[in-house]
Design a protein that fits this description.
Pathway: Cofactor biosynthesis; tetrahydrofolate biosynthesis; 4-aminobenzoate from chorismate: step 1/2. This is aminodeoxychorismate synthase. The protein is an alpha+beta fold. Among the domains are: 268 residues, Class I glutamine amidotransferase (GATase) domain (Rossmann fold, 3-Layer(aba) Sandwich); 163 residues, no CATH class. The protein has 21 helices and 35 strands. The radius of gyration is 29 Å and the shape is globular. The N and C termini lie far apart (70 Å). The protein binds ligand ISJ and glutamine. The site of ligand ISJ has 18 residues, from strand 22, strand 28 and strand 35.
Length: 870
């Protein structure tokens, strides 16, 4: 602060773990030019021994001292019920502060309900049916001829706002006769004389929505008659709340400052601040120089540091597909990472979203790998070979030295940063490629995993790729790239790989390549007999529908606004992953639940007699099949460590460029293509309805929150709100949310900050994220989602990155095998286990059979590749 300047006003935001909190703090900062600090409702800094009881004097005085530092407080929204201590925490003490400590407060949603519940006669009850992501006109006194003191709606025109609530304030409004309602609704009602209503929504209810048909009167805003407390039930920060509503916030702060002035209240500026800044510190700023890699001189700290890029480009031969390139440069059976824009060629699909680049990792044997099993206090760095010789190095790195796995990853990358001048020709020159599980995301948002976990698989598995092939489908070019440490010896990889790819080209020119492949494929289909003992276990219809209803009970109780319920299908089959060059025959349609039940009955524990001993198709064959059946912009194939993933994901999670521009693309709202719904216009008609739009909007607001937490106030925007796009077998509604990371000089933020701050993907959790994940863990029977619902992608050495949500995919772990008794065979057989996760967002408007149908629709594509031949 420069001398003579008045300090910025300060607001304390009490965060009840909502997934919209950062949107509110951003709104406050941009509208009011204030400094906002955040304190969680259960902050151990205030109440070290927990919140279950009335705070002791010491805790109370700490709280009062902290409050004294601010001009005003905002009590935020959140899951649960204000009647529960756990849900509102310290919020509930605000309303009972002694007169000398009182300060202006605005309650929003849960915070508002907490205020209503704290007043004499005020109650909180359930809405007849929750309103989540619903946009309604806020009714307030438009006639300003007789201004009411403290009316923060004065001078505001009519506006629409988004609602996210299952509960509502009860001040006795339902007892008022219809004839007197118009007039009475602006008076403090007898049921709760301390509060003056300032705004309402009147919701038309049909029969079956709670009591009889008619209007439900929903209290939208209040002012306390004697204290400087206000509250709004709607969400002023939602992207769908109209800008006119901003005036209410401005008015509130104006009233708050006026109250302070009239009461001679001035915030205390000095002293220790318990609350946190509204933006997270960057990962790199959390490292001290002594903690940076290379500090302790370990082999991995120096490995591939300070790299320089060497590259060659060759034309992409026409008709050559990504798998052809992969097969030309390495052999099946080894590790692979391929990020495949499988629908890049215009001929492959009518889809709206096409990737431009495919990225193939090479030299995985010699790539350094960073693995982390969530919950461990160490990560492991591994290196299998160097210069073609096995070295099998492995070292445990204590996480405490860095703070978290994320700071370790950020520091590792920082030591290998590559500056590219001018425009980039490829999105990836080398860097981390790999996966992150859903469970790592859970830990990142503070959800403890069940202990002991039933396995010790990595949750973060990232290989530092220095040799890569990038296919630019648009420009028709293949880039062969080697990031080499400046001091390291030259090797022949660039040369030999270029040679192999040029050979591919001449094969193509001789035009025998594709026709030969077609012949091979059809021969292998003819040769193949029904495979042995494959068994498929899909979710049970009734169980899944019951779970949808349980989700809705949680939503009706105010615990969540939307829950992305999922379940897994398992497929067991003889161990397959041998080098194979084959394919499998497929049914024309995915198996219906009835067919699947029949198949399950046929092949549960006792498998049919083996007819022909052909191993089932390898994971690579499954991938090749899936990418033609279901060409997706974010397809991928990973055989990395013990994990195998075959993905046809249509959903981008997060991408960021070198300048820190981040973009997320949450998807919500799915409709299957069929004869009845075959055009975009038809899909739009189905998806542009309140239920589907609300589902999407909730996740959009959640993703905005995730990005705001790292990009800071005013740095997040929304593009393409609720846009319907066409994919191979479905139409999906998407929205693009963009953010700009803060300037590097403010602590060197990188895309990894955005990634770490927004896992697990909001579209796979529901809102609010943390509580929804806790509930889903219960409902999904504590089964780990594992790779499904996690992310796959890259973080380039230049600072750029792209990650997809792992959905519409199949995966398996090498260590998961079952023993099966095969009829007629002497010995039991070891089988591998594949898993396919599928699900969808449940809201209060969902139907159980609709959700079950949606889950089976999403399951069908990936399941189909196992087909009848398995
Ligand atoms: C849960 C899945 O998909 C998610 C849920 C969607 C929805 O509810 O409409 C859409 C895309 C994904 O974010 C899945 O594919 O299994
Ligand atoms: N958004 C909120 O704060 C919701 C409050 C409360 N949990 C409800 O559902 O009504």
């Amino acid at each position: 602060m420069r001398q003579g300047q008045t300090p910025r006003k300060r607001i304390l935001f009490l965060d009840a773990y909502d997934s919209f909190s950062n949107n509110i703090t951003s709104l406050l900062q941009t509208l009011l030019d204030v400094e906002v600090s955040i304190l969680h409702i259960d902050s151990p800094l205030l109440f070290p021994s927990g919140l279950n009881s009335t705070p002791d004097e010491e805790a109370n005085s700490r709280f009062v001292k902290e409050l004294a530092r601010y001009d005003a407080v905002v009590c935020g929204p959140g899951p649960g019920n204000p009647g529960n201590e756990r849900d509102v925490g310290i919020m509930r003490f605000i309303w009972g502060l002694q007169d000398a400590n009182v300060l202006p407060v605005l309650g929003i949603c849960l915070g508002f309900q907490s205020l209503v519940g704290s007043c004499q006669g005020g109650k909180v009850k359930r809405l007849r049916r929750g309103l989540h992501g619903m946009v309604r006109t806020i009714i307030h006194r438009l006639d300003s001829s007789e201004p009411v003191e403290g009316d923060i709606f004065a001078g505001v025109n009519e506006f629409k706002a988004t609602l996210y609530h299952s509960l509502c304030g009860d001040v006795g409004q339902e007892g008022i006769e219809e004839q007197t309602w118009e007039e009475m609704r602006w008076q403090p009602l007898d049921g709760c004389p301390e509060l003056a209503p300032l705004a309402w929504v009147e919701e038309q209810r049909e029969e079956g929505e709670g009591l009889e048909a008619g209007k439900e009167r929903i209290l939208m805003a209040v002012k306390h008659r004697t204290k400087p407390f206000w509250g709004v039930q709607y969400h002023p920060e939602s992207v769908c709340t109209e800008e006119e509503g901003n005036k209410v916030i401005v008015n509130w702060f104006h009233e708050a400052l006026r109250w302070n002035k009239e009461h001679g209240r001035a915030p205390v500026i000095d002293g220790h601040n318990l609350a946190e800044a509204a933006i997270k510190p960057s990962l790199l700023s959390q490292l001290t120089p002594a903690e940076e890699p290379r500090a302790s001189g370990q082999w991995w700290e120096k490995f591939e540091a300070d790299p320089v890029l060497h590259s060659v480009s060759v034309p992409l031969p026409r008709g050559i597909q990504v798998p052809d390139i992969v097969e030309a440069v390495d052999s099946e059976g080894s590790e692979r990472i391929i990020l495949d824009s499988a629908n890049a060629a215009p001929a492959t699909s009518r889809a709206d979203v096409r990737g431009r680049y495919s990225i193939i990792a090479a030299g995985l044997d010699e790539a350094l790998r960073l693995e982390y099993h969530t919950g461990d206090d160490y990560a492991t760095t591994k290196l299998r070979s160097v210069g073609g010789l096995p070295v099998n190095l492995s070292q445990q790195v204590p996480i405490a030295r860095y703070g978290s796995i994320w700071t370790l990853i950020a520091a590792f990358q920082d030591a290998r940063h590559v500056d590219v001048e001018g425009p980039e020709t490829t999105p990836f020159v080398g860097g981390f490629m790999g996966y992150i599980t859903y469970e790592q995301g859970l830990m990142d948002i503070g959800i403890c995993l069940d202990h002991p976990r039933p396995h010790h698989r990595p949750d973060v598995c990232l290989s530092w790729i220095t040799k890569s092939i990038v296919v630019d489908h648009l420009a028709g070019v293949i880039h062969i790239q080697h990031l080499r440490s400046s001091g390291s010896e030259e090797d022949t990889w660039l040369e030999t790989t270029t040679g192999k790819l040029l050979a591919l080209q001449s094969n193509q020119r001789r035009s025998s390549f594709n026709s030969r492949k077609d012949i091979q494929l059809s021969q292998s289909l003819k040769k193949r007999r029904p495979s042995r003992s494959t068994s498929i276990q899909t979710p049970l219809t009734k169980e899944y529908e019951d779970k949808v209803r349980i989700c809705q009970e949680y939503i009706a109780a105010g615990e969540s606004y939307e829950l992305c319920l999922t379940d897994q299908t398992s497929i067991t089959r003889p161990i397959s992953d041998q080098p194979l060059n084959d394919s499998i025959s497929l049914p024309n349609h995915p198996l219906s639940p009835t067919q699947q039940r029949k198949q399950r009955r046929r092949s549960s524990t006792t498998a049919p007699t083996p007819s022909l001993i052909l191993p089932p198709p390898s994971s690579w064959s499954l991938f090749k099949l899936l990418r033609t059946r279901q060409p997706a912009p974010f397809a991928s194939y990973l055989r990395l460590g013990a994990a195998t993933l075959v993905s046809a994901s249509p959903e981008r999670f997060l991408t960021y460029d070198r300048s820190g521009k981040c973009s997320m693309r949450p998807m919500k709202g799915t409709v299957r293509k069929s004869e009845a719904v075959s055009t975009l216009a038809q899909a739009e008609q189905i998806l542009h309805v309140p239920k589907e739009e609300a589902e999407n909007l909730m996740i959009v607001d959640l993703v905005r929150h995730d990005l705001h937490g790292i990009c800071g106030a005013g740095n997040v925007t929304v593009k393409d709100l609720l846009k319907v796009e066409e994919y191979q077998s479905v139409f999906q509604m998407i929205t693009v949310v963009e953010g700009q990371l803060p300037d590097k000089s403010r602590g060197k933020y990188t895309g990894l900050d955005a990634l770490a701050a927004s896992l697990p993907p909001g579209s796979m959790t529901g809102a609010p994220k943390k509580r929804s994940c806790e509930i889903l863990k219960e409902i999904e029977g504590h089964k780990e989602r594992s790779l499904y619902s996690g992310v796959v992608g890259y973080h380039c050495a230049t600072g750029r990155g792209d990650w997809s949500v792992t959905i519409r995919s199949l995966f398996r772990w090498d260590d998961e095998q079952v023993t099966v008794k095969v009829e007629g065979a002497q010995e039991e057989e070891r089988h591998e286990v594949w898993r396919i996760g599928a699900g969808g967002a449940v809201t209060i408007l969902s139907t159980a059979d609709g959700e079950r149908e949606e889950m089976f629709t999403k399951l069908a594509g990936p399941l189909r590749v196992f087909g009848e031949a398995c």
